[in-house]
TrEMBL record:
It comes from Arabidopsis suecica (Swedish thale-cress). It is an enzyme of class 2 (transferase). It is found in: Membrane. This is Glycosyltransferase family 92 protein. Belongs to the glycosyltransferase 92 family. The keyword Glycosyltransferase applies.
Amino acid sequence: MAMVKEKEQNTKDKKLLVGVIWNFSAELKLTFMALLVLCTLATLLPFIPSSFSLSTSDFRFCISRFSSAIPVNTTTTTVEESSSSSPDRVLDNGVIKRTFTGYGSAAYNFVSMSAYRGGVNSFAVIGLSSKPLHVYGHPSYRCEWVSFDPTQDPISTTGSKILTDWGYGRIYTTVVVNCTFSSISAVNPQNSGGTLILHATTGDPNLNLTDSIPVLTESPKSVDFNLYNSTKKKYDYLYCGSSLYGNLSPQRIREWIAYHVRFFGERSHFVLHDAGGIHEEVFEVLKPWIELGRVTLHDIRDQERFDGYYHNQFMIVNDCLHRYRFMTKWMFFFDVDEFLHVPVKETISSVMESLEEYSQFTIEQMPMSSRICYSGDGPARTYRKWGIEKLAYRDVKKVPRRDRKYAVQPENVFATGVHMSQNLQGKTYHKAESKIRYFHYHGSISQRREPCRHLFNDSRVVFENTPYVLDTTIRDVGLAVRTFELRTIGDRLLRTRQ
């Protein structure tokens, strides 16, 4: 029996071997032919005369003849070739003088966004400039006022540049140029109109280029000089928002604007900047507040042509600062995923009165989770709540520092940043945490879905190695905010989606 099985196994192995050889017969023939040729050459090589040889130069010649028949897209010429199109020349000492010609534009000398009066005899020009130019070069600015009155001679002054982005710039950096004509009491005192021209010089020692840019034109009788000395302001509080981009959540924007319109009161205004984030659904949320005159929206999408830090937000906030500088007592800078709060026994008015001696104060951050929610109302009711009512867990992990936001009295500020201003006159206060704080729901604004990924009903939670405590500060005013929205603009936003 064992003998029979062994024979059957041998038969199967032979059939398998034959099958393999049959399937690869063509490849085996080529292999055997190659081995035959190599063996033949090895046999004949000792009998070949020494006068016949193949060198590497012969191979190069052969290859060059072959490649010359193939057309190529590039041409290489030597210095000595007369066909060279470059205007090179040979100096008396035999040195070949090479030249370099630039085409196109690597980065603009200056990109103008806006210019505003900073007073009766000063102006601020806001724009972008090539970052390498300011890092490695010595650009300068000169401001010139040309009156429409032909009897008035043009006047000029040296522009003082302020780089506001703390080195965060990319190809472009934000530049604020202050033009103060200190030798006269006022520019355009007869209100006859004129043009402010910015002369931007690259500072290149060998090829110093200057671009003359008309940055502001005032029509005759268009300037109200009383505006710059008046203590009466149109607003008590004005919000300057950074560039809004990405796929923003309409519901989160709805909650933020309703909360802060109620928080700041009637004498407040909100300036938002659309860098691609105000899609149709978000605009529908803002539309009722725009119609009430509470919100102004600026379309700044064209700035995407110029590669600056975070959609050129430093330039945007500086434009907002100078555009509305004389219209408000206080100006606030924070983001749309951050909610300001003052103690229950205080109001925003009482807090600001206590800080009037300061030109600027910073606001401490309270970091909130944008993923875990409080389920004290029951799971079914929790999902029907606003985000600020259910995102109630605060991160209490100890860290060296957290980002702050800030507010300024804008008339005392020459240029500003994202987290604070470093260019102002007057004092800055950094200990306002007992008076005002902001709750930061990081990442929640860009989530187009239900924010609650995990539900808890505990006062203390450790989630993904981060400790949290239940903090109902913003949650406690949620109902009041929803009621305020309904009374102010009606029920037109009730069907807002995440």
